[in-house]
Amino acid sequence: MGIFGGLFGSKSDDEGSSSGIPWVALNSVDQLSTIKAASNGRPQVIFKHSTSCGISRMVLNMFKSSYGLEDGQMDLYFLDLLANRDVSNAVASEFGVVHQSPQLLIIKNGVVVLHDSHSAISDIKLEQYV
Predict the structure, then answer these.
(1) Residue 30: which region, alpha, beta or left (left: phi > 0; alpha: psi -120 to 50)?
(2) Would 14 be classed as within a structural domain?
(3) Looking at the 3D structure of the chain, how many domains does it have?
(4) What is the mean pLDDT of the chain?
(5) Could you tell me the pTM of the whole model?
(6) DSSP letter assigned to residue 69
(7) 49: CATH
(8) What does the DSSP assignment read for 3-54?
(9) Rounded CA separation 41/11 (Å)
(10) In which domain, by residue range, is 85 found?
(11) Could you give the CA distance from residue 80 to residue 82 in angstroms, rounded to a whole number?
């Protein structure tokens, strides 16, 4: 792997299969009602990622390396923007958040309590929202 591959990760790393993060693929607009309802019991997180963007890949890798929640504290949804543009548009509409990429949203009690994008995602302390 070259220097840029080491910095930004490789495409095989995109979905965090070896990251230890219990991602749930977000690939259907119908899942948004499930996310909203489940947010009444525990926080829900949506990570919007562009698989063709080096910055998005770098932010995802930083998120994976700092992730430290215990199983069951939050549900974490992974949204591949290129494969699911309709879902991304529905997230923006449903939760009233302007689309960004990469972007992380935390949903509690049916509303977004925090959202940020790009490198600011690495400043988010998920533990504060459990």
Answers:
(1) alpha
(2) no
(3) 1
(4) 88
(5) 0.86
(6) P
(7) 3.40.30.10
(8) HHHHHH--GGGTT-TTSS--EEE---TTHHHHHHHHTTTS-EEEEEE-TT-H
(9) 34
(10) 3-8+21-129
(11) 6
